[in-house]
Amino acid sequence: MFSKIYWLYNLAPSLPLQEDFVYHWKAITHYYIETSDDKAPVTDTNIPSHLEQMLNILTQEERERESGETGPCMEYLLHHKILETLYTLGKADCPPGMKQQVLSFYTKLLGRIRQPLLPHINVHRPVQKLVRLCGEVLAAPTGNEEIQFLCTVCAKLKQDPYLVNFFLENKNKKLEAAKDGGADLVKKDPSSPDTGQNQKQNPSLVTSALKEAAACQATSPGEASPSSVHTTLPNSDNYNLVSSLLNLTKSPVSLALIQFKILCICRLDVYNLKEDAVAFAGKRALISFLSWLDYCDQLIKEAQKTAAAVLARAVRERFFVAIMEPQLMQTSEVGILTSTALLNRIIRQVTSEALLQETIYFLLGEETGPETPAGITQHPLRHRLIEHCDHLSDEISIMTLRLFEHLLQKPCQHILQNLVLRCLEERNYMENKQPEEREEREHMENGQPHDAVDLEEDPLFSDLSPDNRLSSPDWLSCSPPPSTEHTKPDGKTEVHKIVNSFLCLVPDEAKSSYQVEGTGYDTYLRDAHRQFRDYCGVCQRWDWRSSPKPFEKCNLDSPFFEGHFLKVLFDRMGRILDQPYDVNLQVTSVLSKLSLLPHAHLHEYLLDPYINLAPGCRSLFSVIVRVVGDLMLRTHRIPDFTPKLLLVRKRLLGLEPEGMSVDHVTLLEGVIVLEEFCKELAAIAFVKFHASTSTSP
Question: Could you tell me which residues belong to the region Disordered (predicted)?
Answer without folding.
Answer: 181-204, 432-492
